[in-house]
Amino acid sequence: MSGDAWRGYQSPGFFDEMIDELGRPRPATAALVGRIGALGADELAERRAAADLAIKSMGITFTVYSDAGMIDRAWPFDILPRVIPASEWQPVARGLAQRVAALNAFIADIYAEQRIIADGVFPAEVLAQSVNFRPECVGMRPPGDIWAHICGSDLVRDGEGRFYVLEDNLRVPSGVSYMVENRLVSKRVFPELFEAHVIGPVDDYPSELLDALAALSPRPDITPNVAVLTPGVYNSAFFEHVWLAGQMGAELVQGTDLFVDDDDCVYARTIYGPQRIDVIYRRVDDLFLDPDVFRADSMLGTPGLMRAWRAGNVALANAPGAGVADDKVVYAFVPEFIRYYLGEEPTLDNVPTWLCMKDDEREHVLANLDSLVVKPANESGGYGMLIGPRSSGEEREHFAELIRANPRNYIAQPTLALSTAPTLVDTGFAPRHVDLRPFIVSRPEAPAYVTMGGLTRVALREGSLVVNSSQGGGSKDTWIIDDTQPNGSA
Amino acid sequence: MLSRIADNLFWAGRYIERAEASARLINATSLLLFDLPDGRDFDWHTLVEIMGAEAGFDARHDVADETRVMRYLATDREHPGSIAASLVAARENLRSARDHVPRELWEEINELHLFMAEAPDVARRVTRSHVMDRIIRTARTADGHIDAGMSRDAAYDMLTLGLAIERADMTTRVLDVRTADLLPSTPETLSPYRNAQWISVLKSLSAFQMYRRHVRTRVSGPSVVRFLLTDPAFPGSAWFCLRTAGDKLARLPRPGPVQTQLARAQRTVNGVDAGQLSGERLSHLLDRIQIEIADLSQAIADRYFDGARG
Predict the structure, then answer these.
(1) Residue B95 C-alpha, separation from nearest chain A C-alpha, in angstroms
(2) Which of A447, A476, B73, B174 could, after both became Cys, cross-link A82 (CB 3.0–4.6 A)?
(3) B3 contacts in A (CB within 8 Å)?
């Protein structure tokens, strides 16, 4: 019986995370594959319906814009978990902590002495053209020299199953609420599977985040007032902002709820009068934070916020300016950062990257546009990219012009054979490409916290590589299954 | 509680109640209409005036007939006082304060909003009655979620403060339906209908049964006015709503200036001597109560919503 649902399942040319190239379950997933296979099509359809209902009734949504205005869509979720054996995850988690430590050291250095430039490891011209470098932050020393308190790094696996870092999101990475909610949904949908496996928990994230935020408080002797700063209900991640505030017991505020008084402290306007705010987990981009310093037309920020931050009267996470390392050109240098600041070899690899700013690499890119993926340095959400093998001659012409006009703004990478995971579609199980966004929380004088797995995003359309929820992507629960204990996986 | 959230909750309460009360008003008027002999000239424009919407209406329509007035008051999203627009506003306010209210409350209002956004044809009397009943039922369900699902905190007090104040306001507006004299002025022949009109006013506020139980006299103008303005036990009476508002205020921080304004409104309501009021004087009194309620709402905004540094 157990074979039926899986019969004919194959993912030729790609590393499938559950079924190997001979059609056999991988060791850590064998029990899971058997149990799911035994369920039968009707039962699976029922479980899927149960998941849809749970998502609807739990109100898990994301916001999209359309011609009809702003709408909340139910979070797209595939019921089949994506499984990573703990033995494979642990080095990845270590590599992420190492990477974020180096990124934080780089940001701190860039806003201080810029030793790395003086030592010739990082080119000054990259910094000169960085759109996320904030001169206003030079000379600041946030607590513990931590700038990127929350990092969401995107990982992919190639044809051999090897993990690579695709990008680091150091500005306002989102998705962690869905990581936790996905687990709640799959517990409802597959309760019996949780009895049969030791699956690493993910729901400690809000507590870890709150601890890390509280540790930044300028008033360490009292319970700090922590706020989550949201751009408001029209932001696509508003669900997550509400969720984080609720889970941490923090106040959810908008820029207009706050003001900075003559004492350079930040206060919330409440019905009880002004209430001092010590730590702000801001989900508003740098340039909108403070109209006195950045964009004067920002309606989302609070005048004086940077003044209060510089005076040390409020902590901002992530620190303004942390995005200087969230740039696809800077990305290419991260392995060098690890060697330079930590004196270590990188545990996790970058995807090989050509920098169009370098003459020889640019020539290579221009000559191979049909096989490469070209990305602008500062876009997110999968926008503004050229996927060479799927592009038209016209699109390649267009990108060649863009690259020549502004080489600093483009990088290129090989088209990766992204790994696949079985996904429930109308005809049964089918391979779909996945990535993984773990979250790394850094705080002064304590080891970084890395989520157990992360948010798995899946390109639901056959053959598609685009995992963004705004563009037809979905998600899966991510299980780090303990394969290190003899009875870890029953 | 953030001032902005307090603002959102207060207005969510007001808009939910306004949608319900508008539906009741429309129902009351329609029911009354059914009782009238054919061919009477029913003054639809007065209904627009009661809702304080004549400027906007007159700018868009030359003729105030049943179809235009009903669509304007119920489903015209361009008219900020319409039921559909009230629901848009209630929904937007709740959306921002979603983490402070039971999810079921949000869902009820969201669903009703979506239903009204499809603009059911309220010009048809059958459809109209169905639509108004649905609005009233949803609002009452919302009351249940608020009462049974919300902790008695500042969020609850702000939301129910908005409900209470809007209810007091709308009770006086529904009374206006009667005093504004919707009927053509040929007194003798229409007197039975005038009585029917008072009954429809009570029914529209779901007050008929309670009135019967507690007043026990023939339905007459003065006793209905007295009941709806000053009855201490009926939850829809202006007196009761203001007392409820006072209870909420007493739990909110430093309500002093707001309480002063509340006391002013209460004195006006308490001073009603329905037996002494001619139609015109009653109408003036109702206007005065509405103005004091508006001042009360403003006092709340000054004290709690703009409360930047105070």
Answers:
(1) 7
(2) A476
(3) 257, 269-271
A232 touches chain B (CB under 8 A): yes
Contact assessment for residue A98 and residue A347, using Cβ atoms and an 8 Å cutoff: yes
Instruction: Establish if A269 touches chain B: CB-CB under 8 angstroms.
Output: yes
Contact flag B309-A259 (C-beta cutoff 8 Å): yes
As to burial, measured by CB atoms within 10 angstroms (0-12 exposed, 13-18 middle, 19+ buried), residue A256 is: middle
- Of A168, A166, A5, which Cα lies nearest the Cα of A99? A168
Q: Where are the domains of chain B?
A: 3-305
**How many whole angstroms separate alpha carbon A208 and alpha carbon A196?**
27
Are β-strands A428-437 and A410-414 bridged in parallel, bridged antiparallel, or unpaired?
A: unpaired
Burial (CB count <10 Å: 0-12, 13-18, 19+), residue A228: buried
Give the burial class of B150: count Cβ atoms within 10 A of its Cβ; 0-12 exposed, 13-18 middle, 19 or more buried: middle
Which one of A265, A267, A271, A272 would you mutate to disrupt binding with B, by most B Cβ within 10 Å of its Cβ?
A: A271
Q: Do B103 and A59 touch (CB under 8 A)?
A: yes
Handedness of CA A183, A185, A188, A191 (dihedral sign): negative
pLDDT of residue A286: 94
Q: Tell me whether B55 touches chain A (CB under 8 Å).
A: no
CATH number of A353-415: 3.30.1490.270
Is A232 within 8 Å of B99 when comparing Cβ atoms?
Answer: no
The encoded tokens of residue A309 equal: 């931050």
Residues 213-272 of chain B whose Cβ lies under 8 A from any Cβ of chain A: 252-253
Geometric angle at alpha carbon A184, from A183 and A186, rounded to 5°? 65
Residue B264 has pLDDT above 90, yes or no: yes
Provide mean pLDDT across the span A204-210: 97
Contact B253 A261 (CB under 8 A): no
A-chain residue closest to B154, CA distance: A271
Coil vs helix vs strand at A77: strand
Task: State the burial class of residue A445 (Cβ atoms within 10 Å of its Cβ: 0-12, 13-18, 19+).
Answer: exposed
CB B116 within 8 A of CB B87: yes
Nearest to B2 among A242, A246, A251 (CB): A251
- Contact at CB, A268 and B2, closer than 8 angstroms: yes
Query: What are the residues whose beta carbons fall under 8 Å from the beta carbon of A191, sequence distance 6 or more?
Result: none
Helices A176-189 & A205-214, crossing angle to 10 degrees? 150
The complex scores an ipTM of 0.81
**A233 at the B interface (CB within 8 A)?**
yes
Q: Among the ranges A28-32, A68-72, A267-271, which has the highest mean pLDDT value?
A: A267-271
Fold designation for A219-313: Rossmann fold (3.40.50)
Q: What is the 3-state secondary structure (H, E, C) of B50-66?
A: HCCCHHHHHHHCCCCCH
Taking a C-beta distance cutoff of 8 angstroms, is the pair A447, A208 a contact? no
- Give the closest-approach CA distance of A273 to chain B in angstroms: 5
Q: Which of A253, A257, A273 sits opposite B310 (nearest CB)?
A: A273
Residue-wise pLDDT for B132-168, tens only, equals 999 999 999 999 999 999 999 999 999 999 999 999 9
Residues in B closer than 8 angstroms to A59, CB to CB, are 103
Interface of B with A in 157-216 (CB under 8 A): 158
In sequence order, which residues have a C-beta less than 8 Å from that of residue A127 and are 6 or more positions away?
A110, A114, A117, A133, A324
What pLDDT, in 10s, does the model give residues B99-140?
Answer: 899 988 998 998 899 899 888 999 998 899 999 999 999 999
Q: Closest Cα partner for A471 from A166, A62, A170, A80?
A: A62
Assess contact for A168 and A331: CB atoms under 8 A.
Answer: yes
Q: Do A271 and B96 touch (CB under 8 A)?
A: no
